[in-house]
Amino acid sequence: MTRRELIDYCLTYPDAYEDYPFDALSDAPDAWAVLRHKGSKKSFAFIYQRGGLCVNLKCEPLFADFLRHVYPGVTPAYHMNKEHWNTVRPDEVPEDALHEMIDHSHRLTMPKGTRK
């Protein structure tokens, strides 16, 4: 999966938008893409390059620990709260598992009152 494909997948959520709050150029190779909810502007995915493609995703702590033991490509999040966020290397996890992790992060960060 390429960086663009990962961003495009995250944009399939109806309330998602792409942001680059840390970089002046969105197409710079080291730019961090932040995927957010439109209403609350809460982030649910941080996509960046660090020794390969990475995505930071929010996760419930016990599930985060479980995923770290199941997939070598899932580690405590780089540059974020390591209890609640994982760094996932898309090349090292099955695509369906990656999609489930993105969905989990999206649901956890939804504005209050819209979670189902």
For the record, the CATH architecture stands as Alpha-Beta Complex
CATH topology: Aspartate Aminotransferase, domain 1
The averaged pLDDT comes out at 92
Give the CATH class: Alpha Beta
Quaternary state of this entry equals single chain
Spatial order of strands in the largest sheet: 1-2-3-4-6-5
> Quick one: biggest sheet?
6 strands, antiparallel
* Rg on CA atoms, Å: 13 Å
Task: Write up what this structure looks like.
A six-stranded antiparallel β-sheet has the order 1-2-3-4-6-5, with helices on one face. The protein has one domain: Alpha-Beta Complex (Aspartate Aminotransferase, domain 1), CATH 3.90.1150. The model has no long low-confidence stretch (mean pLDDT 92). A hairpin with a 5-residue loop joins strand 2 and strand 3. The protein is an alpha+beta fold. The longest helix has 14 residues. The relative contact order is 0.18. It has three helices and six strands.
